[in-house]
């Protein structure tokens, strides 16, 4: 008897989780999930496409939420509306600034240099502490100065 009452309740509770996950306070960080993402001038498929992203993992800042649509800001400061389901809550970061950024073995300028990374490279963001962030770029992992990343820190 208990299982017959509990299972429908459990199914209903877990179905609400994705909806609740969409109801976050703005602004917040997200990343592009889709291989192709249309950014529109308004929150509907009826609005004109302003830009097309072809960069899964690219970090974006969500600045407004509206019924299945998100107003995002990209690393260049462009803003537009995208379908919420094509964004991921996984944090990403893009290397910014002038010249090559150093990816190190540990969170310090004294840590062994592993690679040099060009601005524009996108990776999966790990934790950040004391001005250093973990960054994974395909099979390469290391630490990079937080000031060389867009998508790290508070949105």
Overview of this protein structure:
This is SH3b domain-containing protein. Keywords: Signal. Pfam families: SH3_4 (PF06347). Residues 1-21 form the signal peptide. There is one protein chain. By secondary structure, the protein is mainly beta. The protein has two domains: 24-90, SH3 type barrels, CATH 2.30.30.40; 93-150, SH3 type barrels (Roll), CATH 2.30.30.40. It has one helix and 14 strands. It has one helix spanning 2-22, and strands at 28-32, 37-40, 49-53, 59-66, 69-73, 79-83, 87-88, 92-95, 101-104, 113-117, 122-129, 132-137, 140-145, 149-150. The strands form four sheets. The protein has a five-stranded antiparallel beta sheet, with no helix packed on it. A five-stranded antiparallel beta sheet has the order 13-12-11-8-14, with no helix packed on it. Strand 11 and strand 12 (132-137) form a beta hairpin. The chain is elongated and about 55 Å long.
Q: Can you give me a brief rundown of this structure?
A:
This protein has 155 residues and is mostly beta strands. It contains one helix and 14 strands.
Helix content: 10-25%
The CATH top-level class label of the largest domain: Mainly Beta
Order of helices and strands: HEEEEEEEEEEEEEE
Q: What is the name of the CATH superfamily of the largest domain?
A: SH3 Domains
CATH topology of the largest domain: SH3 type barrels
For this entry, give a set of tags.
155 residues; mainly beta; SH3 type barrels; 2 domains; five-stranded antiparallel β-sheet; 1 helix; 14 strands; elongated; SH3b domain-containing protein; DUF1058; signal
């Amino acid at each position: 008897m208990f299982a017959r009452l509990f299972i429908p309740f459990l199914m209903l509770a877990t179905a609400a989780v994705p909806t609740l996950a969409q109801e976050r306070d703005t602004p917040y960080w997200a990343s592009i999930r889709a291989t192709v993402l249309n950014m529109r001038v308004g929150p509907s498929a009826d609005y004109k496409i302003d830009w097309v992203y072809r960069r899964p993992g690219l970090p974006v800042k969500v600045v407004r939420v509206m019924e299945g649509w998100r107003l995002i800001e990209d690393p260049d400061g462009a803003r537009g509306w995208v379908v919420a389901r094509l964004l991921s809550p996984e944090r990403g970061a893009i290397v910014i600034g002038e010249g090559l950024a150093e990816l190190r073995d540990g969170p310090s300028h004294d840590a062994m240099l592993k690679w040099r990374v060009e601005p524009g490279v996108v990776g999966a963001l790990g934790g950040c502490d004391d001005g250093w962030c973990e960054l994974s770029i395909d099979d390469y992992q290391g630490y990079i100065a937080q000031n060389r990343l867009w998508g790290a820190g508070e949105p």
